[in-house]
């Protein structure tokens, strides 16, 4: 937990010293062009968006330097080809793994809609069969076992149904 707090403190200090720069940029994430306001974490000295080519060179040097440090420590190195966008996907994957909703992820990633988030990351949310079955069993477990026990004894069990929004009691027959 101390590592998380120190990482959080370091990140907060960095953002405080170098706040995100507001910009208006083109957004084509859904295939349509429009402008939207964004807050850029990485900018040029003039506060403009960093262009891809210079950034790639800078990033590769950072990864090379980091890998030298990691190698000296005997730790696992950053895989070749890891780009900043890879870190974005890692961040998103970790949020999903720890139970964040699609709406939280959409906000954190700056997607214009939850549909874009789901189109990109839906395969990372847990399989619904693994989560829904235990939820139903936990919520209805005692009711279901009473119903099964009553049915096995040959008794008739009331079953609630809805018709046109009105609740009606029917009797289930064997």
Characterise the protein shown here:
It is a single chain. The protein has 174 residues and is an alpha+beta fold. The protein is 53% helix and 16% strand. A hairpin with a 2-residue loop joins β3 and β4. It starts with a helix and ends with a strand.
Question: What would the keywords be for this entry?
Answer:
174 residues; alpha+beta; 6 helices; disordered C terminus
Task: Break the fold down into its secondary structure elements and pairings.
Elements: H1 2-17, E1 21-27, E2 34-40, H2 52-73, H3 84-97, H4 102-109, H5 114-121, H6 128-152, E3 157-163, E4 166-172
Antiparallel strand pairs: 1-2, 3-4
Count of alpha and pi helical runs = 6
The strands making up the biggest β-sheet line up spatially as 1-2
Q: Which structural class do the helices and strands define?
A: alpha+beta
- Quote the beta fraction: 15-25%
User: Looking at the structure, what is the overall shape?
Assistant: extended
Number of strands: 4
Portion of residues within helices: 40-55%
Order of helices and strands: HEEHHHHHEE
Q: How far do the termini sit from each other?
A: 57 Å
Low-confidence stretches: 159-174
Question: How is the biggest beta sheet arranged?
Answer: 2 strands, antiparallel
Q: Which radius of gyration do the C-alpha atoms yield?
A: 26 Å
Mean of all residue-level pLDDT scores: 79
In short:
By secondary structure, the chain is of the alpha+beta class. It is 53% helix and 16% strand.
């Amino acid at each position: 937990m101390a590592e998380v707090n120190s990482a959080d403190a370091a990140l907060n200090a960095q953002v405080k010293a170098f706040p995100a720069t507001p910009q208006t940029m083109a957004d084509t994430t859904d295939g349509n062009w429009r402008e939207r306001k964004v807050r850029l974490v990485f900018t040029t000295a003039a506060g403009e968006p960093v262009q891809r080519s210079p950034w790639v060179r800078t990033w590769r040097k950072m990864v090379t330097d980091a890998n030298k440090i990691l190698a000296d420590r005997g730790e696992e190195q950053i895989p070749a080809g890891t780009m900043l966008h890879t870190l974005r996907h890692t961040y998103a994957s970790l949020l999903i793994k720890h139970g964040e909703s699609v709406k939280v992820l959409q906000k954190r990633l700056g997607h214009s809609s939850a549909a874009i988030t789901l189109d990109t990351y839906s395969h990372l949310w847990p399989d619904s069969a693994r989560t829904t079955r235990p939820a139903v069993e936990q919520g209805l477990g005692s009711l279901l076992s009473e119903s099964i026990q009553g049915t096995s004894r040959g008794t008739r069990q009331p079953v609630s149904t809805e018709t046109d929004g009105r609740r009606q009691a029917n009797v289930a027959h064997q």
